[in-house]
From TrEMBL:
GO terms for molecular function: DNA binding. The keyword Transmembrane helix does not apply. Pfam families: HxlR. This is MarR family transcriptional regulator. SUPFAM superfamilies: Winged helix' DNA-binding domain. It comes from Secundilactobacillus paracollinoides.
Length: 131
């Protein structure tokens, strides 16, 4: 059966939608990372949810998984070239969120933003899909 998307953002959200995937991708923007380090950076995610999100991103070819044969086993995740094409989208999302937090702070709300560095997505040059 043919998959039909009403608008392009629907196709994007199918791959990176949800609470955790964009955050996982931002941490992977710093370079390959192990599951335990991701879990430490995302303390509110359950191990089951982290595993599910990583598997989905891997199935969509946004990240790669490398298993080292050692005891205990070591697994690293990294962005693929396709995953790196999401750079500008995630930077734009971060900037929009930062602006919104600052507006809420100015309105007197008790909100805080721990980092304004756009995650790792500023650590590499963007890859474009243009030919």
């Amino acid at each position: 059966m043919k998959k039909i998307y009403r608008i392009g953002v629907e196709a994007t959200l199918e791959v990176i939608g949800g609470k955790w995937k964009p955050m996982i991708l931002c941490y992977l923007g710093n370079g390959p990372i192990r599951t335990g380090e991701l879990k430490r950076n995302l303390p509110n995610i359950t191990s089951k949810m982290l595993t599910q999100q990583l598997r989905e991103l891997e199935a969509d070819k946004i990240i790669s998984r490398k298993v080292y044969s050692q005891v205990p086993p070591k697994v690293e995740y990294a962005l693929t070239d396709e995953g790196r094409t999401l750079r500008q989208l995630l930077v734009d999302m971060a900037e929009w969120g930062e602006h919104r937090v600052h507006e809420r702070q100015a309105a007197g709300e008790d909100v805080a933003l721990l980092h304004e560095d756009h995650g790792g997505y500023l650590n590499f040059e963007p890859i474009t899909t243009e030919a």
